Amino acid sequence: MPKETLWPLKPHTAAKHEILRRYLGAWFPILGSKNPRLLYVDGFCGPGRYSTGEPGSPIVAVETAYSHRNNMRANPEFVFIDKDCSRIKNLRSEIKLQPWHEDYIIQTICGEFSQEFPIILDTLVKTHQPSPLFVFIDPFGFSGVPFKLVKRVFSYKRAEVFILLDTARLRRFLGHPNNSTRKHMEELFGTKDVFTIAKSGHDRISALRGLYQQQLSTCVRFVRFFEMLDRNDVDIYHLFFATNSPLGFERMKEAMWAVDETGTFRFSDRTDPGQMVMIGATPNKGLAEQIEKRFAERTVCVREIKQWVIEETTYLPKHVRAALKHAERTGRINVKARMDDGSKRRSGAFPDGVIIDVRPKPMQKSLGLS
Prior knowledge:
The protein has helices at 11-32, 57-67, 85-96, 113-127, 147-153, 167-173, 179-189, 197-200, 204-217, 246-259, 285-294, 302-312, 317-329; strands spanning 39-42, 77-82, 105-110, 133-137, 159-165, 222-229, 235-243, 266-268, 299-301, 334-335, 355-357. With 370 residues, it is an alpha/beta fold. Strand 1, helix 2 and strand 2 form a beta-alpha-beta unit.
């Protein structure tokens, strides 16, 4: 944890903020056009500005909302929490410098997230239900974020959580004998199962990520993670997004694709932050193989394939057409001439009603997925 009030921005943090900015760029206008109020909470907000001049996550959030103000009827409310009062003081100064500082309700709190957020959540449940809630939890280390509190967020009907799991530090401390350290770990995961990872002999990083993903999946429908690496391509942490909204899940995957155009959802500090823009990647072979495996020996509509792609893969619906064209061209699928409504299918097109047999006819040896 930095000891200074301000510290330099690192590339992986810039990538994290890019994901946040892109997602909120969809979240604010979509939900803000349908709801009178939106609620945004940043649990470890920091000072609002880096020593190198870049905006911190609180400024990123409010700036994004402000840029979409003409498409919103909602009046967003923001709550920023940090236990370092010098950082809260700096954040308040930064907010006063912004053109939007009097346009929104912005609350800044100096205190522990684990103590302050339950009070806020109680108030929200009583007064604002069912206004959409987005919670950004970005701690240094692994203390102060008990899983029971994260789980409680989802008792709020329309909540989404974007949370950092410090897998690198957790790996180092897994076998630590200190009772306080072990207590923080157990609270973070909400289970003693975390301690079995040190004895399992498996890849600890993957096991820690998998356990946390499993825990989130017990209380929310959709979970997706993004992996951050240092300049030596060694794991630093994982970002998890959790939601019950299919649309929100799709929009977050779009934000992650914008930062990692390969679809593996990984970012290394070796990457040039200036290149964090999707350049039209069109996956075909990889997704085609997954579709063939998932729907083998079945007749299925493109509509069902797209839903599966959104909910259970890293790909996006816009990738489906290229994958199906590839599969049709290589003979891995048979496409019906008529769609599910009886209309004729246009050659090469894959609207939702197209019917596909994933039962390929015998192929010549020269054809395949290569």
